[in-house]
């Protein structure tokens, strides 16, 4: 706020006003009987109540005598006593919890407003109000009624109608006002619909109008009808990956952990005006539920009620969310424009993308999301557009969402020891038919970074640990030559029922997978195939260790009963025939990089056929000059001074 400006002065005035109201209410609670004979106290009895534009309107009749001296039977309203329309702010109404027949004391400084062509005066500035209980019978009624929720009629006033923007031929706003019948059946696990029990329930199709009318505290009986565009999981604040269990391998811990991640189910919705909101369910969810909810909910109409605004975010503060919104913009069908007829020429998709979005939340343990699963897919729904990897690599934009179907060949966990294991990113090396059948100028394998904020289901983690699965990457992020799976990216083993292929070649791989050979274009953090001649062996780094022949545990101990035998703590048994693993670093002379010193870390258990156990221990010289044919390797680093390449032998999934 500008120092000394009007906004700063108004903010100070509002703070003083809130403090004065809180102090006054504290005094009323301290005093058993607040003074009603104070000059200027207005005494009213509520006859009818309704809500309009977040203001509670009470039709009241003024009492001349304080009800403190009257019994409930004698507090009968005479016809000649004036009728008043009393306005209570949302905070005041929540404090009073008023009902018809309640008596309210309104203390100064209240104000009376006389409207032109209106017979009923309006009472405003009613912050200093107190409800009065007339007798013990009223106290009993108060306690009993306090257990049941008061249903208050809401008058939905369209902003277009307020500012007289309505088209004479457009009866939508009138329908919105007339639609006071019960709406919204509730969803259950079996998908059946039941009639809603709320008597006063109105349906709106504008998220922004609901926010304007209902405020941020919570939408009660009123509902808004939207389209579910995407369903995904977001990590909870406590953590986004399961902790590492026991002595599991570094790259296997985030994938094989049996503890489910702490996540919450979310979905991105869009109203008839093109406005987006993200709904976050606060109750604990499982990432395994995403696939079924994607199939059941995406593209379907949904009624939201009881929502609470968690945050109003903008493009600059939520780049990930708005990159997903931008991928769904412009709408595939014309959307409504506030204040204009649906038949107006202005009703086109030539609209600027949204600049803000409301994050909505639902109180835990309550159902406020009602989805009609039997209804047909909405025309406003935009399924993910599936592209080939070759086409994605040619996109010029930055922070573009993309979806593709690829085969995972190899995975690797980030090895920065300063980062906790459950927060490290995973690298997936993938390919598809568009890369395998392409020319030399395009890489045959692409690295996909899976950030810690991307929630992986148990099914995906198990598939990545066991085999080379075909995975559908939905709404991944492409930019600066990288594909990243971030929050709101979903990995599935099955292709969605609805997806737009856009003419891309999505055929599955039939022949053997080929890797790019090591050459001058090879980059670090990639996989390649290398061939060459062994010109050196680093004997100082060579070592071997025994492992369990049953579970593969590499940390064997001496058996307490017989020190000549080895013991496995994982199997709790003596290891009779241990498997010997060996590591050796060799230097290759590669024709594709003749000027580089290529160092390869070789594992004896793997497919380096040029070596043997006897060679490693006894005849190192006999290894020199041996030819190595197309060894699959991971590229650790590429240095220019001196010109050196560090590789590690790998086994593809």
What are the SSEs and their pairings?
Layout (H helix, E strand, L loop, with lengths): L5 H25 L11 E11 L2 E8 L20 E6 L1 H7 L6 E4 L4 E3 L8 E3 L4 E4 L3 H10 L7 E3 L3 H4 L9 H7 L24 E2 L2 H8 L8 E13 L17 H4 L6 E8 L5 E6 L8 H8 L3 E4 L3 E7 L4 H9 L28 E7 L6 E3 L17 H5 L6 E14 L12 E6 L1 H4 L9 E5 L7 H9 L3 E10 L2 E4 L4 E3 L34 E21 L9 E2 L7 E3 L4 E3 L3 E12 L2 E11 L9 H5 L9 E14 L2 E7 L4
Parallel strand pairs: 1-8, 3-6, 9-10, 12-15, 19-21, 28-30
Antiparallel strand pairs: 1-2, 1-4, 2-3, 4-7, 5-6, 10-11, 10-13, 11-12, 13-16, 14-15, 17-18, 17-20, 18-19, 20-21, 20-22, 23-27, 23-29, 24-25, 25-26, 27-28, 29-30
Could you characterize what this model shows?
- With 653 residues, this protein is α+β, with helices and mostly antiparallel strands.
- Among the domains are: 20-25 and 38-64 and 81-131, OB fold (Dihydrolipoamide Acetyltransferase, E2P) (Beta Barrel), CATH 2.40.50; 204-236 and 262-333 and 354-382, Nucleic acid-binding proteins (OB fold (Dihydrolipoamide Acetyltransferase, E2P), Beta Barrel), CATH 2.40.50.140; 389-492, Nucleic acid-binding proteins (OB fold (Dihydrolipoamide Acetyltransferase, E2P), Beta Barrel), CATH 2.40.50; 526-649, OB fold (Dihydrolipoamide Acetyltransferase, E2P) (Beta Barrel), CATH 2.40.50.140.
- The chain has 13 helices and 30 strands.
- Strands 1, 2, 3, 4, 5, 6, 7 and 8 form an eight-stranded mixed β-sheet that branches.
- The longest helix has 25 residues, at 6-30.
